[in-house]
Amino acid sequence: MKALLIRLDHVGDVFLCTPLLRALSQAGYRTELMVPEAAAQLFDGNPHVAAIHDLRQISPQFPYGWGTLSRWLRRGGFDVLILPYARQPALLWASFFSGIPTRMAMWSGIWGRLTLHHCLRSGLPGRLRPFADILLDCARRLGIPPGTTRPELYLPTAVCDAMARQVVARTGGRRLVGIHPGCGGSSCNLPPAEYGRLAALLLQHRDVTLAATGVAAERAMIATWPASVQASDRLWNTMGDLTLQQLAALIRQMAVYVVPSTGPLHLANWADVATVSPFCAAPTLSAAVWGNDNGKGVALAPPPDYCLQRRRVGNRHCDFSGHVNAETLYAEVIRLLWTNQEMK
Predict the structure, then answer these.
(1) What is the pLDDT of residues 264-320, one digit of tens each?
(2) Which pTM was predicted?
(3) What is the CATH number of domain 2-141?
(4) Alpha-carbon distance values, 180 to 7, 20, 48 (Å)
(5) Which listed CATH number (3.40.50.2000, 3.40.50.720, 3.30.70.20, 3.40.50.150) goes with 157-337?
């Protein structure tokens, strides 16, 4: 049996498909994957992925000319096609004309039904559960045991060893705390300057080194941080300097990672790292769905009424208006860092 999973959106959401890929592979499916180029390296070396395809090479004009993708799907000999996030009508129509016997779609709306997909419902907001478990409903629909929800990543030893050496050189044996101030606008988040205040509080402790993570476009966030923080030799600004594999290897070296609801939080889940995260209290955006479920995740959220009232008036995302701030994040980081030896 041959299955193809297509997911074309955010890197973090793509990574949360790994439990589903594992379940399909363990059930005997030859499982192939189509994801954005930026996410492809997260699946290098994954034994549950037989092949990774680049949509831009298959159908360069997609979503225009979606027939090219449909013809490629028809030639692929797939028994199952899974669309975990099927908001694009063009993707659904390409699937419809593919001739693939079993076609599943999630979050597809009316277009999914019109194109005769097996449309699966998340059950949100009535049934809150990790997003990876929602995706595993595709396996359940096929009669496959879902397994665990923990995402997985197979990092090359050379990448891990090189990062471990960098961390030793940067920290000098101090504990490494990561701060990821950005989220690409995909969720509620604190203002960048608030993360700067957190950095200043943490740098009061001489046995702490900070690593700021993010993409190159987020480097300007550091400019809002206190000058003393920016000038500190215990601030390691990695923004825009790391591949996804290198970022994952760096996260594995952290004692605590302060990160909002965004892709690196899911990498921390895989790496079994403790996290502190500001989170929206609205059920569908909450930590119950998107949080770190490795047992080491701390989520700080404003009162539920605050989030619900803002969403009723059309505010999709907010900055928590002080309900979550540098001091509340700092208290949780220190609690997680605390050991039998008093921090300096």
Answers:
(1) 999 999 999 999 999 988 888 899 999 999 999 999 999 888 877 776 655 567 888
(2) 0.93
(3) 3.40.50.2000
(4) 24, 27, 30
(5) 3.40.50.2000
